[in-house]
Structure formats: structure tokens, C-alpha cells
Amino acid sequence: MKTATLQKDGRTVVAKVERLTTFAERSVGVLGRKSLGAGRGVYLRPCSAIHTFAVRFALDVFFLSREDRIVKVVRNLRPNRMAFGGLKAKAVLELEAGWLAEDALREGDVVTFAEGAERPGGPVNSS
Question: What is the dihedral of CA 105, 80, 89, 17, to 10 degrees?
Fold first, then answer.
């Protein structure tokens, strides 16, 4: 599993994103975890739909196109639910619900991933 920072317009938005790209990694995802915590996320590719069965916390979900453009946002997806990204969705970014400011990532935004440690400036949060 690789980790990266998620950036928008050259600024770090999520300090640590786990990139789950193998079938085995994607199958487990966030299942069984107690929390992801602020500044952390999970990126699943390929993926166009998710479920939160056996997930212990609500998620903010961002469906991404092939070009990593946000095509759909689902906020506060509670446990035991499903979400579909639509035909353009090719990947999913999952964050623990509530810590990221609602205007930090929006439908239409393009994000990038930088391998390695968090960049100076820290993550964008809701405080």
C-alpha cells in the first residue's frame, strides 16, 4: 500500500491518503477500523461504488473521474449504506465525515496526489 498527500491547486488538502489499488486492499478498505481520523483518507482505484456495511463511522465520499476530477460528493454516508458514483466515476476518496471543510473539495475540482510526506502548510480543515 502506498501513501500520498492529496492536493488541490498545489496545496495539501489531505495529509495522508492510503492508495488501495489491488483487489485485496480494496476489498478490506476501511472495514473494521475504529476511525480514519482528521487529515487521513483512503483512495480506492478502480472503484465506482462503495458500501459501508461493517464500517463503524460515517464517511465523506468523493467519486473521481479517470482524470481525478470530482464527479460526485456524498457527505456523511452513515454505516450500512451504499453510494454510487455514476458512469464517470473511476475512483473513490473516503474521509472520516466532518473534519474537512465543505468548501475544501467540491464537485468539478481536480485533485492530484504527491507521494511522500505532508507538504508545508498542513491540511485544510474545518477550524
Answer: 50
Number of other residues whose CB lies within 10 A of the CB of residue 34: 8
Residues linked to residue 18 through DSSP beta bridges, in sequence order: 3, 42
Residue 58 CA to residue 38 CA, distance in Å, equals 13
Domain boundaries, position 101: 2-115
In a domain, 52, yes or no: yes
pLDDT in tens, the chain (127 residues): 788 999 999 999 999 998 887 776 777 666 666 778 888 899 989 999 999 988 889 999 999 999 999 999 999 999 999 999 999 999 999 999 999 999 999 999 999 999 864 433 344 444 3
Q: Other CB atoms closer than 10 Å to residue 40's CB: what's the count?
A: 18
- 124: in domain: no
Q: What is the pTM of this model?
A: 0.85
Do the beta carbons of residue 76 and residue 60 sit within 8 Å? yes
Is residue 92 one of the residues assigned to a domain? Answer: yes
Query: The CATH number of the domain where 40 resides is what?
Result: 2.60.120.1140
